[in-house]
Amino acid sequence: MEEKKTITITNENGTTEQVEHLLSFKFNDNNKEYVIYTKNEKDENGNVTIYVSNVTRVGDEITLNAVSDETEWARIKDLLRELSKNE
Q1: Could you tell me the residue range of the domain that residue 53 belongs to?
Q2: I want to staple 26 with a disulfide (CB 3.0 to 4.6 A). Which of 22, 33, 57, 80 is the partner?
Q3: d(Cα 25, Cα 56) in Å, to the nearest integer?
């Protein structure tokens, strides 16, 4: 069984929490990096909620930002669909 990878994130209110790191990837054409993680919360249908954030690196500091661009979201969803087909 593969060991789960965890990362520590800081919320908007300044509190930190451990989350499970699922995947990191980069789109080469726009050089944007993303991370997918979960807090292992389940929605009303029993599905685990996942989060996707854009990664900004300044020196050693990493900041996770919300993905707000619809074109970016469409590309991320397409990538996730392709990955789920391969599992």
Answers
A1: 5-85
A2: 33
A3: 13
Looking at residues 38-59, what average pLDDT do you find?
Answer: 92
Confidence (pTM): 0.83
Residue-wise DSSP of the chain: -PPPEEEEEE-TTS-EEEEEEEEEEEETTTTEEEEEEEEEEE-TTSPEEEEEEEEEEETTEEEEEE---HHHHHHHHHHHHHHHHT-
Using the predicted structure, report yes or no on whether residue 55 has a pLDDT greater than 70.
yes
Count up the domains in the chain and report the number.
1
